[in-house]
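Data availability (excerpt). The following record was deposited with the supplementary files.
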Amino acid sequence: MIDWDALFSMVNGLALIAWVLLIFLPRWPALLSGVLYLGVGLLCLIYAASLIGLLSGLIPNPEGGGADFTTIEGVQAIFATKAGTTIGWTHYLAFDLFVGLWIARDGDAKKVSRFIQAPILLATFMAGPLGLLVWLGLREPAARKQGRFR
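Predicted structure:
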């Protein structure tokens, strides 16, 4: 039986460490690879194993909650369980961290100051699509300076 509370805390801690490294440390190639594989990759592995285990019945879910993604009630039922919430949250953490890593690499490539990148990365960590939207708006002038396809 999985301790969903412990797994939830673990994925939160893993994501937080990866975000701190990404925002505050120099972006050496090894660090970026670590964030990608030990951060994003591990979150994806935890997500996939939990989801497949739960849907296949290999991991029992005493709280129930089927996988109905076709109605709002079905999605609410998924997130009404600790398993569903943990798996869904891990999904968000993995994708937001991947987007943050892309923003950091793109910002560095376009020579955007780390002081400008930091609040955007923090916004991406806290509210993924909001940070991405801000970055997409701010990156356009830098992209035009370098040529659109760089």
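Summary of structural features: The chain is about 80% helix and 0% strand.
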